Amino acid sequence: MGTLMNKLKRDRPSERSGFVHRLLLSLCGCVLLAGVGCQTFNGIPVQQLPKQLLDGKLKDDFIDVNMLRLRQDPPEYYALGPGDVLGLHIPNILNSGEDESILPEVHFPVDDNLPPAVGSPVVIREDGTVALPFIEPVNIEGMSLVEATDAVRLAYTQSETRIALEDAHVILTMIRKRTTRVLVIREESGGQEGVTKRGTGHIIDLAAYENDLLSALSETGGMPGTDAKNEIYIYRGTLADGADYDAVMSNLCLENCQDPCFCNETPIPDPPNVTKIPLRYHPSHPPNFTREDILLSEGDIVIIRSRDQETFYTAGLLGGGEFPIPRDKDLDVVGAIAIAGGPIGSAGTGIGAVGRTNIGGANPQNGYCQASQVIIMRELPCDNQIAIKVDLNRAIANKSERVLIKPGDVILLRYTLAEEFGNLVLNLLQFNILLGNNRF
């Protein structure tokens, strides 16, 4: 300290003021970070907390749902139904007069999966029948094209007109398959650079036997990204169904609005017209959705929710920040500090730190003694919270002390009193060495 005092006496007033300011800044930084003169959090050591309070939602053991469960099985044959548009050609009945030299109409479908069709367009009506000249409507719902051709021929030969078609060639082809129109809303981002799905809505027409969840996802950008929730919502029903559910939720809120524990202890009922399809699950608890759950009907709404609220926050030496929690793997306190860019362990013995300059001692990565005390502020039911104290050095060596991070956690990194004192001593030692060198 004698060298330090001599330095202060020898310097000009302006230089002396600047040096004193830097020294006081170093000392004040150490004191404030030690918790003197500012708010402190006396957290409970992690070893003293029950296990159920520390564990988050374990995700490392989860697996992806089998893709085959998201689509319907291909049919043995295409069964005709309402909405199909067929091409029907019957000589002398559905052509221009008796001139057989006139060729039937040819249609080239927009769908590349279908071959060209011939004949006049005939639509299968809502009751599964087709309206044909001279005879009563013929019901062909559920039949294949071959069966429907035979049914039309039989209907003409057995009708009161008794049109002789035994030798005539009835042609029945597919012009356009029936479709199911659904709406797909995606709130997540794209999985690759330059591709975004956030906030997009798609009205798509799914062909018969392709009106399933997997086909709807494929038409709108593929499987959900990592910033999407691991479940897909399918809204069915009518406007009245949605209004009824809103009324139920409003009544629950009004009846329990004074109870802060209501939302934590009372399960909120899911809308009766919403189907949830999980995309990941634990092998011990496979999902129990059925084929009917992934089939889409006219007017259904498919929504992929974003995980914007699944984040944690940083404070203290880590600085203020908000970071997303990984979707498919667990995140503990060590991993969270690494994501936030904080220090994890020390790479040296600390002897080499004497030669470095660190006035202020507020950077957790450049300090002589790295910060190792972590306080996790976690919300509890009934508007309560708890402060969990973690020794970062112990957590690195002992996995059982690595607290799993939950959405909404606030992670505060700070120095222990011993680390503050060590940084202060090393700072003063460095000043004495530097000032002693300047004497010569």
Brief synopsis:
The chain has 440 residues and is of the alpha+beta class.
Any overview of this molecule?
The chain has helices spanning 2-10, 13-33, 51-54, 145-157, 213-219, 239-256, 262-265, 291-294, 333-339, 392-397, 417-438; strands at 44-45, 63-64, 85-89, 106-107, 117-118, 120-123, 129-130, 138-139, 171-176, 179-186, 200-207, 231-235, 274-278, 280-281, 301-304, 311-316, 321-324, 373-380, 384-391, 410-414. It is of the alpha+beta class and 440 residues long. It has three domains: 2-58 and 330-438, no CATH class; 63-74 and 179-304, no CATH class; 85-176, 2-Layer Sandwich (wza like fold). A six-stranded mixed beta sheet has the order 1-19-18-20-16-17. A five-stranded mixed beta sheet has the order 11-10-15-12-13, covered by helices on one side. Strands 6-3-9 form a three-stranded antiparallel beta sheet, with helices on one face. Helix 2 packs antiparallel against helix 11. The longest helix is centred in the last third of the chain and has 22 residues, at 417-438. The protein is elongated, with a radius of gyration of 37 Å.
